[in-house]
Amino acid sequence: MTGGKAVLDRFAVGVDKDAIIAAALALQAKHGLAGCTLAAVAERLRVDETQVSRHFADRADLLTAMAREIARGVRATPPAQGWRAQLVQRASAGRQLMLSRRDGALLFAHMPTLFPPGGTGFDCVPALCEAGFSPADARAAVALVDRFTVGFAVAEQAAPASAETSASFESQLDIVLSGLASARPDGLVAQRDDRLRRFQSSLWVFLRDARESANISFARTVHINELDRRILLLLQAQGDMTLAAISLSTGVDKAQVSRAIKRMTEISLLARGGIRSPIRLSASGRQLAERLLRQAELRNRELTFGITDEQIVTLFGVLDTLLTRAVALFEKERKLVASNQRQEPVDFQDLVAEGLPDENGIAVDRSRILPPFITLCSYMLRGGALAHKRRTGLSNFESWVIAEICRNPPISWPQLVLALYRDQSQAGRTVNHLVESGLVERTGKPGRRHGFFAPTEEGRRISDIIRDTAARRSEFLFQGIPPPQLDSFMDAFDILSRNAEVQLAREKAIQEMDRD
């Protein structure tokens, strides 16, 4: 600290943060980081330690402030071109920063990054994301380079400097960056593509868990099925709606919706003026819908626990895009079926050129997280079922079964049932049909379901068609969405899936306790 006795007298009555940080940095320069404690700073400033503690709760808090102050002194430079050059720039600046101070590397070893928030730094994350890294992978890459740089600088300050030090740093940093470069195309991007390809099956599992959990939970309130609940909640949120509008909003065909409306009208939950009139909630229906809505909002908010507000906004934005495109695919397939064009491939580029339907305008609302996912899944399944039927003659579930059998054959019966998330009777009927159709062959004792299953040559050909159809549909659904948004969407979806599993386990436990 400069200014001698006059400066010390100035801070004797009330000491501020800047004076404390300056005193701490002076102690670091004189005695090293070990001599920099709250008590030592207070002694240097000739104040009581409580005055220092008012500004810094503990030594770690003080060290962070010191690191920020040091980083603030780094001269800002234009970012280099490309993620690799930017990481080199960041690492080189960080190393010089640490070497400029006694125990500088030890100080930054206490920090999560080389340039703490508030200091001048080199933000390499955008460049990494543009190159194909997910936001999480980009942040991990920066942290890896920072940890390497800190470790190298700690070793430098602990031993006498040598003429080979700078060259060694550059060569070792190059090895680290080469590892990141090799992981990006072969690991990270491929991992994202695999997540997108398996999104539909993951979505089905997520909704299965959420639905089963909801059925148990809502049964304690009222005994009505899931579609009835969805219609009641939809009318509560949107007001009076026509049969066609309810069918479009839920993704359920008109016949099923019509039966549900008739069922609820008979028990006075719904009312309508005529066969073509909008459907509305009755007084008792509105009362029940309000009870269900409060329960649904609580459950939906639980599902989003651990997801940031920023992720929620991205999640609903991507959902809106996916739903619009899923509807477009379904309508295209429906028209092809109506015109009996069984083998004509869907021209995805035409769908884009002709223009997609208007945006759905899904509201960003944690309390209504499930409805758009349910509708999306419905349109994806209905469109996929038409596409698979048109190109292979198989149903949606038959296509799913043969895809699982072809994934890593031969597959055992228990493994197959687990992968399909279906009961053994339904899976057994489908597998038997595929065996009889010459698409699947089985090894094991005759007349028994347990055994191993593998595709025949014709089964592999059909599987290739299914895989190509699914890949092209998935590509259309996700095309043009920036990688950072996709990764944020998938990360949030993973959290939703885990929370749904927890909800289901809890509801089953409560159900068991109620039985006892």
TrEMBL record:
One of the record's GO molecular function terms: DNA binding
Keywords, alphabetical: DNA-binding, Transcription, Transcription regulation
Keyword Acyltransferase on entry: no
DNA-binding region per Swiss-Prot/TrEMBL record: 37-56
NADP recorded as keyword: no
PROSITE patterns in alphabetical order: HTH_TETR_2
PANTHER family, per the entry: TRANSCRIPTIONAL REGULATOR, MARR, TRANSCRIPTIONAL REPRESSOR OF EMRAB OPERON
Protein name, as recorded: DNA-binding MarR family transcriptional regulator
Start and end residues of each HTH tetR-type domain: 14-74
Pfam families, per the entry: HTH_24, MarR_2, TetR_C_1, TetR_N
